[in-house]
Design goal:
By secondary structure, the chain is an alpha+beta fold. It has helices spanning about 5-10, 20-30, 55-60, 75-85, 100-110, 120-125, 130-155, 160-175, 235-255, 260-275; strands spanning about 15-20, 35-40, 45-50, 65-70, 90-95, 115, 180, 185, 210-215, 215, 220, 225-230, 285-290, 295-300, 310-315, 320, 325-330, 330-335, 340, 350-355. The chain has ten helices and 20 strands. It is elongated. The chain binds glycine and manganese (II) ion.
Length: about 350
């Protein structure tokens, strides 16, 4: 997982990279903090402040020099020094991350040409290495263990917020560093809102509960969604659930490196459209994830690019019937040349919990 070497090997026409986004700095150095990373053809530097210096040195070790900024030597001065040591003229920066204000300062203070390089970063991060996949698998495992325990505890009368809080506790106490995004627990009619925020609504018999949740382990995100029924399930709920499940399976069957994101999405979307629910599936089949919960490339109708080997994408079709209920089922896939590995083991057949 020597990402500095990977970044250096991708410099091409560039003399150096200047990374200011937290996630890209973590990708390069393995350290999560506030700072900037400079990768030149010869060296690598992580420039931070005294809040992070000791921790950064411990984590980064010999992979990069850790330089501490101060009032006398602000970040821009240290970046300039690092670039000048390497004689770097063409310097790539993350135009999708750097603020306009930061760019203005760097354009004034650095004696180099700043060139957009976000694509280089997204392309490298879009293809995960073995170590990254190991971490993603571990994060999924922690999350799934927490869900298994949670489902034993859900009772009629519990609120969505209580369920979300318990799930979050279970993930962190099982070793997660933090959540990969705000947990979604959407019950009954709330489940027709794909990204509903947990409320004080109490769980009732006959509800669908959509639980979309994830945690971060060693810097990498998990993402899982399950929709479960409480006590009983109507014919319509069962039908819609099974359509979503079939759609997800079709998308998973189509997923491999080399196919476009559009075609993976299309394989799943076709099942939902043929069943007459096309207009109730508004979002994409999936997104990449890794250090961030939403990364590129996407398994979406607009992505015509072939998926790379090592892409890690979510498989999360859904059907949302306003005022009634919604269903989403989400796994995470690692794409290889001949197919994909599903790193989500949690069962997907419709589960009716006692409540
Ligand atoms: N699971 C949350 C999301 O993909 O947006
Ligand atoms: Mn997702």
């Amino acid at each position: 997982m020597d990402h500095i070497a990977r970044l250096r090997a991708s410099l091409g026409e560039l003399d150096a990279l200047l990374l200011t986004g937290e996630s890209n700095c973590f990708y390069a150095t393995g350290f999560l903090g506030e700072g900037a990373t400079v990768v030149t053809k010869q060296g690598a530097y992580y420039i931070t402040d005294s809040r992070y210096t000791e921790a950064a040195e411990k984590t980064i070790g010999a992979a990069a020099k850790v330089w501490e900024m101060s009032r006398e030597n602000p970040m821009s001065a240290l970046i300039r020094r690092a670039l000048e040591e390497a004689g770097a003229v063409k310097v790539g920066f993350e135009e999708e991350v750097m603020t306009v204000a930061q760019h203005k300062v760097f354009a004034e203070k650095l004696s180099c040409e700043l060139l957009p390089a976000s694509k280089l970063l997204t392309s490298l991060r879009g293809s995960k290495d073995e170590e990254e996949i190991t971490r993603l698998v571990a994060a999924q495992k922690i999350a799934e263990g927490a869900l298994a325990q949670l489902l034993k505890e859900i009772r009629v009368g519990m609120t969505e917020k209580e369920i979300a809080a318990r799930l979050q506790y279970l993930m962190v106490s099982a070793g997660a560093e933090k959540l990969s995004f705000d947990t979604i627990v959407a019950s009954g009619p709330n489940s027709s809102m794909p990204h509903a925020v947990p409320t004080e609504r109490k769980i009732q018999k006959g509800d669908f509960i959509t639980i979309d949740f994830g945690c971060v382990y060693q810097g990498y995100c998990s993402d899982t969604t399950r929709t479960v029924a409480v006590g009983e399930v109507s014919e319509e709920q069962r039908t819609v659930y099974n359509i979503v499940l079939e759609a997800q399976k079709a998308g998973i069957a189509a997923a491999h490196a080399g196919i476009s994101g559009k075609d993976i999405d299309g394989a799943a979307r076709e099942v939902i459209e043929k069943a007459g629910y096309g207009k109730y599936f508004g979002h994409s089949f999936g997104h990449s994830l890794g250090i961030d919960i939403h990364e590129s490339p996407n398994a979406s109708p607009t992505n015509e690019e072939p998926m790379p080997v090592g892409a890690v994408i979510s498989a999360e079709p859904g059907i949302y019937l306003p005022g009634k209920f919604g269903v989403r089922i989400e796994d995470v896939l690692v794409l290889g040349e001949d197919g994909c590995r599903n790193i989500t083991a949690f069962p997907k057949e419709l589960l009716v919990i006692d409540g």
